[in-house]
Amino acid sequence: MQEVNQDLAHSFGLDRPHGALxxxxxxxxxxxxxxxxxxxxxxxxxxxxxxxxxxxxxxVGAARPGDKKPMTVLRDGKERxxxxxxxxxxxxxxxxxxxxxxxxxxxxxxxxxxxxxxxQTRRELGMSSGxxxxxxxxxxxxSTAGVRPGDVLVSIDRTPIRDAAHLKxxxxxxxxxxxxxxxxxxxxxxxxxxLKPAAGSTG
Length: 203
Known about the structure:
The protein is an alpha+beta fold. The chain has two domains: 2-85, PDZ domain (Pdz3 Domain); 96-195, PDZ domain (Pdz3 Domain, Roll), CATH 2.30.42. Helix content is 18%, strand content 30%. Strands 7, 8, 9, 10, 11, 12 and 13 form a seven-stranded antiparallel beta sheet that branches. Strands 1, 2, 3, 4, 5 and 6 form a six-stranded antiparallel beta sheet that branches. The termini are far apart.
């Protein structure tokens, strides 16, 4: 998914930026089989409007694998509705959406989907190990900090991130009374973002 900015909105014939632009489709996935194509702009999912790409992951995540859901897309300047069968995320690049702390309190959730880095991406980034690729960002702490799809998370609170499971553990142990630095690789460079405590977690 890709955000629709003002220039893209004009190029696709939209009067304003909204919707989620499909940048690519897994050729073996359910979306491709159901007729979703790169260049489609998703306007609604299961009757819920999609104003930005971050709106879509929570909507899809609320559905169960195998559910059939209507999706309205803009294609070649015309809206059409297609029925999508929600699939189950696959290994080995298993994506985790909503990296929650253990237990019922989900205050530590980043609400992002991440995947392990493949060998080619590691070579391009000059990383021999560690780090996770951000594939989706929903509303929450990570979004507020400025995390974007395509970022590679390297460390959190100065602790190197080994993999997705390790990130989940680190997030669950973060302090609730202060912001922590989040090291990110983006567009060939490295930067730090301030990850603030979850709202209401300081008591």
